[in-house]
Design a protein that fits this description.
The chain is built from 13 helices and 9 strands. The protein is of the alpha/beta class. The strands form 2 sheets. The protein has a 5-stranded parallel β-sheet. The protein has a 4-stranded parallel β-sheet with strand order 2-1-3-4, with helices on both faces.
């Protein structure tokens, strides 16, 4: 593995499955309440420019279960790139801590953080991508369907960081991936082109949600307006209304379709209560798996640095 985990595209196919194997092992140990202090004495600095419940809880609990300690740094504690240069923050924090996780707006900031840090940096989310989430999602699909290959995964909604991360995964694993967004809300063009050039996956970007979910094994959605887009929220509701994941839309997918959402969900907007709380939903399994996958990523990064 590379020193840092900034994108799924940083990993090879073999490394992805190694992380999943370790995730499975750590999850079992957690459920059996079996001690697994693989990072005893290690400290994780968590830098938040964007607040989050799941990211903080999963990383903080995860490093504790691994025998380490997490330090939460709120937006007002750091002011990354504003109060202090990113490269200065990187060089200081990496002298205090063994790992850095950052949840930021600008993807260039996390790239600079990794460049100047002497310890591994983990991307907890940027406006461009959300690799820890999609690793957890992929692991969850493996648990429920037994494979990621030869199944149809349909993402319905905004072509945001989640969509970009699914496309990055499709550049490393052979997926049947459909991204369904309104016109002008498509995912990053360069990311899509790179994945298509990799030639591993069938990737479609279409605008008709009924066509998109036809025979889908997995239907995935996310909020229509991400953090930082609040001013656009009302306008986006009008544009994205036909893209709501509801019982009617699911009729066009496979009978045993699995429904996923990275949370937090705006119930009644991108997904209905009936679907989110219904028998097709594996949303809370994927939420739990964030912690287990992130634990495996932290362990693998530390092991790699020791080599």
């Amino acid at each position: 593995m590379k020193k840092d985990f900034l994108s799924i595209a940083d990993l090879t196919r073999e490394e992805i499955y190694e992380i999943f194997d370790l995730t499975r092992e750590l999850k079992e140990k957690t459920r059996r309440r079996e001690e697994h202090h693989l990072l005893k004495g290690y400290t994780l600095a968590m830098i938040f420019a964007k607040p989050s419940a799941r990211t903080r809880i999963s990383f903080e609990t995860g490093i504790y279960q691994l025998g380490g300690y997490a330090l939460y740094l709120a937006p007002t504690d750091i002011g990354i790139g504003k109060r202090e240069a990113v490269k200065d923050i990187a060089r200081v924090i990496s002298r205090y801590n063994n790992l850095i996780m950052a949840r930021l707006f600008d993807h260039a900031d996390i790239e600079e953080l990794a460049e100047y840090s002497s310890v591994p940096v983990i991307n907890g989310l940027t406006d461009y991508n959300h690799p820890c989430q999609i690793m957890a999602d992929a692991f969850t699909i493996l648990e429920h369907l037994g494979s990621l290959e030869n199944i149809k995964i349909t993402y319905v909604g905004d072509g945001n960081n989640i969509a970009n991360s699914w496309i990055n995964l499709a550049s490393r694993l052979p997926l049947n991936l459909v991204i369904c967004t309104p016109r002008s809300y498509e995912p990053d063009k360069a990311t899509l082109e790179n994945a298509l050039q990799a030639g591993l996956s069938k990737i479609e970007v279409i605008s008709d949600p009924v066509e998109a979910v036809k025979d889908a094994d997995v239907v995935y959605t996310d909020v229509w307006a991400s953090m930082g887009q609040e001013a656009e929220a009302e306008e986006r509701k009008k544009i994205f209304k036909p893209y709501q994941v509801n019982a009617e839309l699911l009729k066009h997918a496979k009978k045993e379709v699995k429904v996923m959402h990275c949370l937090p969900a705006h119930r009644g907007d991108e997904i209905t209560d009936e679907v989110l709380d219904g028998p097709h939903s594996i949303v809370f399994d994927e939420a739990e798996n964030r912690m287990h996958v992130q634990k495996a990523i932290m362990v693998k990064l530390v092991e790699n640095q020791k080599r």
